[in-house]
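Backbone-to-sequence.
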């Protein structure tokens, strides 16, 4: 796992619940991607895009790891749905890396924000 993500988790662990932490990380991933779409032609674009995609890839890899743990308390159907969603996001990230286009980021942004809203108990 990324050292930066570990540090982030450690800093907020004492002040927020696990769900809020997950929601915050998903929101951060969405905002990084949104920043890329809003400044697509700007200087340093490809570096920002690479960082945003890698951050999101790490988020979803962590979710995958959590969903396959035998001691995971979530119902099997929920775990399966999250795993399927993570596979979709993995494929989309690879597709964006191969042929970048700002509109390809929208679905990841939307998924991250909707799940974050659900984790916070607020409407998407």
């Amino acid at each position: 796992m990324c050292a930066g993500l570990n540090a982030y988790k450690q800093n907020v662990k004492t002040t927020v619940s696990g769900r809020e932490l997950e929601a915050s990380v998903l929101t951060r991933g969405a905002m990084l991607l949104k920043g890329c779409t809003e400044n697509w032609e700007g200087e340093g674009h490809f570096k920002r895009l690479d960082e945003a995609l890698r951050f999101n890839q790490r988020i979803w890899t962590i979710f995958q790891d959590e969903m396959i743990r035998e001691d995971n308390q979530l119902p099997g159907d929920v775990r399966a749905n999250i795993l399927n969603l993570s596979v979709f996001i993995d494929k989309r990230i690879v597709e964006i890396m191969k042929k970048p286009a700002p509109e390809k980021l929208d679905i990841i942004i939307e998924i991250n924000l909707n799940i974050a809203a659900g984790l916070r108990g607020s409407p998407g």
